[in-house]
Design goal:
389 residues, globular, Rossmann fold, alpha/beta, 15 helices, 2 domains
Amino acid sequence: MRNFIFQNAVKIIFGKDAESQVGSEIRQYSRKIMLHYGGGSIKRTGLYDRVVDSIKEAGIDFVELPGVQPNPRLSLVKEGIRICRANGIDFILAVGGGSVIDSAKAIAIGVPYEGDVWNFFTGSAVVKESLPLGVILTIPGAGSEASKDSVITNEDGWLKRAVSSEIIRPRFAILNPELTYTLPPYQTACGAADIMAHIMERYFTNVPNVDFTDRLCEATLKTILQHVPTVLEKPEDYDARAEIMWASTIAHNDLLSTGRIGDWSSHAIEHELSGIYDIAHGAGLAVIMPAWMKYVYKQNITRFVQFAVRVWNIDLSFESPERTAIAGIRKLEEFFKSIGLPTSLKELNIPDDRFDEMAEKCIRPESISIGNFMKLGKADIINILKLAY
């Protein structure tokens, strides 16, 4: 196990009707805020009215910025920065899933910064300050409600890039599993794939002697495997929804990273897919992660055997190590298929004519490889995309 510092100051407010507390939480920070959200779903479900009532009862003024899309756009981030500056906004409330929260984080770091906010996402600027923000989560999956990350898509070149900083973690996150009852099955399944990917990116490490966090990762994965089929059959099963929502937060709040080095190459590859083709991030991960596994498993076959045995309950005594490892990867693909997700690029209607471009973008000019479990160059990325096809 490696040395580590773990710090996560996000206040989690979890449970039924938790959103009623949002006004009192915001009052600790601001009297004038931006309310940031996506489309009309929060209005159709009545969540918007409940949030606005709580804000008004707390004596808080607000301006609105709706319109966040999946794979949130830089242009809307820049509009949010302009609105915040023009109206003296000093707090942002994000109501939605990971896309809304990531957009809010980008706005929050852009307001006090004199340069182009995109500089943070290219690595040419470092986050030093941010407006505070709070979250009401409606879609578990991205884990942005307690993470230090934001991912934004720049329409100029369709580049999807991330920034990471402790400064951008929300001050509070309100998690009410009831708010997820109306999620379409496909969105629920995509969220599940995203959660699992966050865990597996951390799980596949070459750092030895990390059994405690191995067990935490495995338990979180098994929680998703157990409860996602339940909510797909019974969308209003509160207990199953609660397990998924809390697992999503734990999967990406960095607890599972402690003492180990994650990989993250599957995320990097998928960002190029969703940046260009605007697919759901979780759907892309359901395709890329098994393909990545097939390409790299011999790098540390013992870890893949452990994954197969501990997560998928494969009986080691009947298989060779290699066959056991492959069986675990096959089980992952079967699970994704069983919850209605694609496992090939063909199923996503993505052609094979831009693999070279995606690999080039993935590597970027400043690097020659991605990943930590196994370093991947441009040719490796192309081979993984071919496996995914």
